[in-house]
Automatic annotation (TrEMBL), chains A, B:
Pfam families hit by this protein: Ykof (PF07615)
Protein name per Swiss-Prot or TrEMBL: YKOF-related Family
InterPro entries cross-referenced by the UniProt entry: MTH1187/YkoF-like, Thiamin/HMP-bd_put_YkoF
Signal peptide: none
Domain spans labelled Thiamin/hydroxymethyl pyrimidine-binding YkoF putative: 27-105, 132-216
Residues spanning the membrane: none
Length: 223, 223
């Protein structure tokens, strides 16, 4: 949930008034589902139709689907989306780009000093589907007004430690951290790491490539 | 080409001695090819076999393939890889993660102060295949020893200006820049933006999701 700051007590032009509004703060994801089967259109359409997008603003493009809203709603939607694709049994890649603290593209529409935005860590939900993934986490801005001093390495170590604790951490690879386990645990780890860094840094992005139903995965790996 | 700094004239423990070695500097890419057809294994295997990987170190995993080497070799390989998939006529996503200046994962194996690494901008090669793409570019470290002062916004504006000049820029979207055009021009724009920022910032990453042969693309868009 958003922090307990009450926006109405702040002057209208104070950027901190925007922190509690996930869309004004630019909390969102872009997702590409790439289903490796001739009937990919049907499978992608079905997955998008079955996932609960409650609370989210969705915009579908030809490269990815954008979803804006709270971290909690995003994690639920991403998990249901991935689980629907996984349930088809077909090999698929799910590419997830998370961002918060910088609505807009080249120039943030949100001024520096608006954040950070502290939320409770959304809990992941087990799906019964095994996934492997490669994860990158980027704290991108240090100009904050919160009580916690920015410390990128502390926050990234915390994110890695959580992955070790919940068993999703596999290894450090070139440029990424390799994760494996239940799809819900993998996505929960990534969203928790992203929101965790966001407690002290306004602009945080994260990129994740997930492999589902890979022929390289053995049946024994499915939990 | 690498800068004209001669590594042998530097003390062995000077991190600047590593700049001219692309592998020591962590110049590389991770690529995921997701081909949306039942015969995806054959198409991905064929594309990997046909692309010229000369000069590159390759490691294939179940989520992505890592390639390490010079920016020039990486652009040639990425372009040939994507063109081979596009030539199949099958809809596919190509996910590219570029990184330079930070070999390793949580902690850079390269000390701060090693870079930046200045190289000539590799030229893109036209492929005859139309692509759309979403692009994010991240300057991640400011501690540099070069002659050019770091200025993230200047470098990102320069990258966007190049995309406008060569006609690949389409629009600013949530969290990304949308590109479209010949696959070779799109990849050339991205690699040029990444190396351009790298003239003043040691650690620069970039993430690109490319859509090939999308049913949303009309025949008129193919150049």
């Amino acid at each position: 949930m958003p922090s307990t700051t009450t926006p109405t007590l702040l002057p209208a032009d104070d950027p901190r008034a925007l922190v509690d509004d996930p869309l004004a703060f630019g909390v969102g994801a872009r997702v590409t589902l790439a289903v490796m089967a001739d009937r990919y259109v049907e499978l992608i359409t079905d997955a998008l139709a079955s996932a609960d997008a409650g609370g989210l603003v969705l915009e579908t493009g030809d490269v990815s689907t954008y979803a804006g809203g709270t971290e909690h709603d995003l994690l639920r939607w991403l998990t249901q989306l991935g689980a629907a694709v996984a349930a088809s049994g077909v090999h698929a890649a799910m590419v997830v780009h998370l961002s918060r603290g910088c609505p807009g593209e080249v120039v943030c529409a949100l001024p520096g000093g608006a954040g950070p935005r502290a939320v409770e860590t959304p809990g992941g939900v087990r799906t019964g589907h095994f996934a492997t993934a490669e994860w990158a986490l980027y704290p991108l801005a240090d100009e904050v007004t919160g009580d916690v001093e920015p410390d990128h390495m502390r926050d990234i170590y915390t994110a890695i430690a959580r992955a070790r604790d919940n068993g999703t951490f596999v290894a450090s690879e070139h440029f990424v951290t390799r994760l494996a386990g239940d799809l819900g645990d993998v996505l929960g780890t990534v969203v928790a790491g992203w929101t965790g860094v966001g407690r002290s840094v306004q602009h945080v992005t994260s990129h994740l490539t997930v492999s589902l139903n890979s022929p390289s995965h053995t049946a024994g790996e499915v939990r």
